[in-house]
């Protein structure tokens, strides 16, 4: 491995960490401002009614979800729709961290309630400028850079903290 490889690897690793942190900040800010739509079906309904309000689509799945054919079909359709209307898409692994960031239970609770479907999350246009933050710019920039490298749907792993 050359020095360039090592430096490039560290920069790439740091970039991923920064984007991961920015995504978490963005999701928390959007949730506080009621600018999140959570769930595959809820997201599909919103994109059908008001696609121009969506600024980011987060598709989340862990390894065990990769064999869920229905979920993968939903992801494919949502990705196609997002590509058609230029919505940034980000694939994320680390469902338990995602649930933790959003303050959601990732297992059945003591009342028998199922956890929310966090497989698809849409960030919608903010009504307040607070959401148009550095976090949104950083995630958008990461998506754009990935598309320039022919990675149309960039992937990111959320790490437990």
From TrEMBL:
Residues 22-114 form the Ribosomal protein eL8/eL30/eS12/Gadd45 domain. GO terms for biological process: regulation of cell cycle. InterPro entries: GADD45, Ribosomal_eL30-like_sf, Ribosomal_eL8/eL30/eS12/Gad45. Pfam families: Ribosomal_L7Ae. Transmembrane segments: none annotated. GO terms for cellular component: cytoplasm; nucleus. Belongs to the GADD45 family. This is Ribosomal protein eL8/eL30/eS12/Gadd45 domain-containing protein. It comes from Conger conger. The lineage of its organism: Eukaryota, Metazoa, Chordata, Craniata, Vertebrata.
């Amino acid at each position: 491995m050359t020095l360039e490889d090592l430096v490039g690897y560290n920069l790439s690793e740091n970039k991923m960490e920064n984007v991961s942190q920015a995504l978490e900040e963005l999701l928390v800010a959007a949730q506080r401002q009621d600018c999140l739509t959570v769930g595959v079906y809820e997201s599909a309904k919103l994109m059908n009614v008001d696609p121009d309000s969506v600024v980011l689509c987060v598709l989340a799945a862990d390894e065990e979800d990769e064999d869920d054919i229905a979920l993968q079909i939903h992801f494919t359709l949502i990705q196609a729709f997002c590509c058609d209307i230029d919505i940034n898409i980000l694939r994320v692994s680390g469902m338990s961290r995602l649930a933790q960031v959003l303050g959601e239970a990732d297992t059945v609770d003591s009342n028998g309630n199922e956890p929310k479907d966090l497989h698809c999350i849409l960030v919608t246009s903010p009504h307040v400028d607070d959401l148009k933050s550095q976090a949104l710019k950083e995630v958008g920039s990461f998506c754009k850079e990935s598309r320039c490298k022919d990675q149309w749907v960039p992937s990111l792993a959320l790490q437990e903290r």
